[in-house]
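Quick one, probably user error.
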């Protein structure tokens, strides 16, 4: 070539022609051999696919995702604040593993928390994996990346006296709900989504199946870890029995009656 570069050209089985230029003859030859090998295996991809920008590929990836609305909101914030400012205009094929590692280092130097960095990296890694699966790039640059360690905070627990001081200040229905939470570890959504028929009084157990969300009560989409059987201490079961004895079998255990507006 007039520029002094060497150009390699290959064709796939459909007759499509692909060319790339390199400063060294050996590089052009190696690329041509690799592309011919891919063509023989039936795995040849369009080298020009990687010219798409990170932002353009992100938009396609984002529109195809199937996740919870709450997760989408959190992911959108992370991508806006930590991912797009760095990667938006990069060509997908131009991103290397060292580029990703340098990006992580820059986030650390800016004082971004370890948990936020991990979320930003995981999202970027997902975007890159999808690009590999769609033959946009041949290999994900998100591999063997060093991330800052997330400090593990030791759990903090109420003492019996602290818990009782809170319970003593609550009216009966909320006292029962709080008592159940203290001695079972149920989350707020699990407590407020609990149904009468999920309580097994004979075996002193309850079953966590439904959860209360911003979109209403629904069954857990997850299985073994979220849906579980929880033992009830005798004094907690006794308080629950006083609370539920008038409830219908399918009723929600803890509800609030709002004042009527005339």
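Nope, works fine. Designed sequence:
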């Amino acid at each position: 070539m007039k520029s002094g570069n060497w150009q390699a050209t290959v064709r796939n089985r459909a007759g499509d022609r692909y060319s790339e230029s390199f400063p060294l003859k050996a590089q052009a030859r190696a690329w041509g051999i690799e592309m011919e090998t891919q063509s023989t295996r039936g795995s040849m991809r369009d080298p020009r696919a990687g010219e798409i920008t990170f932002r353009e590929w992100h938009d396609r990836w984002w529109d195809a995702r199937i996740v919870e609305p709450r997760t989408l909101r959190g992911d959108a914030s992370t991508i806006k604040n930590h991912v797009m400012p760095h990667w938006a205009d990069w060509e997908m094929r131009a991103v290397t593993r060292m580029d990703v590692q340098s990006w992580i280092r820059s986030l650390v130097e800016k004082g971004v928390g370890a948990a936020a960095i991990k979320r930003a990296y995981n999202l970027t890694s997902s975007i890159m994996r999808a690009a590999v699966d769609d033959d946009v790039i041949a290999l994900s640059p998100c591999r063997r990346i060093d991330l800052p360690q997330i400090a593990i905070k030791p759990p903090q627990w109420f003492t019996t006296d602290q818990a009782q001081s809170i319970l003593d200040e609550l009216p009966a229905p909320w006292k029962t709900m709080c008592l159940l939470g203290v001695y079972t570890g149920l989350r707020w959504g699990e407590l407020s989504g609990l149904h009468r028929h999920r309580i097994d009084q004979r075996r002193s157990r309850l079953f966590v199946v439904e959860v209360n969300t911003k979109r209403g009560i629904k069954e857990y989409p997850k299985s073994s870890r979220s849906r579980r059987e929880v033992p009830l201490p005798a004094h907690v079961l006794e308080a629950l029995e006083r609370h539920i004895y008038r409830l219908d079998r399918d009723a929600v255990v803890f509800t609030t009656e709002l004042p009527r507006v005339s």
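The two ends are 85 Å apart (CA to CA).
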